Amino acid sequence: MPRSRSGKSLGISVKSSLRTLQILEYIDSRQRAVTIAELSASLAFPQSSTSTIVQSMINAGYLVVDHDSRGILPSSRVAALGNWVEPSVSRADVRSLMVAVGERTSQTILLGVPSDLCVRYIDVIPGRHAMRLDIPVGSRLPLMEAGMGRLLLSEMPDQTVEELWQQTKRRVKDEGAQGIRPSDVSNLWNANPFVSPLPEIMEELKQIRRTGFAISLGRISLGAGIVCVAMPRGPLEQPIGLGIGGLSELISRDAQQILSVVRDAASELGIALKMRSGTTRTSEREKTRRLRK
After folding, report:
1. Contact by Cβ (8 Å): 142, 117
2. Chain segment 67-85, per-residue pLDDT in tens
């Protein structure tokens, strides 16, 4: 009969599994060979455990060594994973959209997905403004409260939203901010973790579903704002959001223009967004709703 594993050893195993996936996500976002030192620094992992995980992935055939750059790359075995799920929008087109929007707005462009009770940013193109929003790949923000989180929640059934809200409420009550493990970039929320009333969240999700976009200003990160739109997806795909982030005052001032840029760039690439015509003007309610991002 196999031995039961202690809670401590199980926790270590889970952490290693998550780090393995984060390493693959990071390499995918860079689309080039990376070194162990870069992975350790960018993902804030100890270098010793990063080396151990990478070596295990090489031994298992999921990573290969690029001898020219002395870095590592995903193998064809990784490339074959998920091929049976046909994406609604190719990764190349999503990246092209991010680049186009970044070039036209000079703001930070983010790609976010739900991850447990957080939003995880799986790809980032840094902005070109002197005072730009700096969010590393892999950053985690509270799903229930972040602007990108509300956008992703709007793509889910109400019952799922309520279940996630209950889990968030319970974890924050029992463990505070660390109950959902957000990154340091969520500085306002981390200092004073809160969970908005469910009716308030549901009302905003209705608004997002009607317009096809979400705007959040200074809600989670000090002085930061974001405009988000949902990417098209099939029934087997998880929600994924495109975010344009920057200083709150710039996002508030330029929201209409940013949404127009996103719409035009998506149309040029043949990407059908859910944004409705005539909804690019920021509502007065959104302009005055600047409590926290």
Report:
1. yes
2. 766 789 888 788 777 665 5
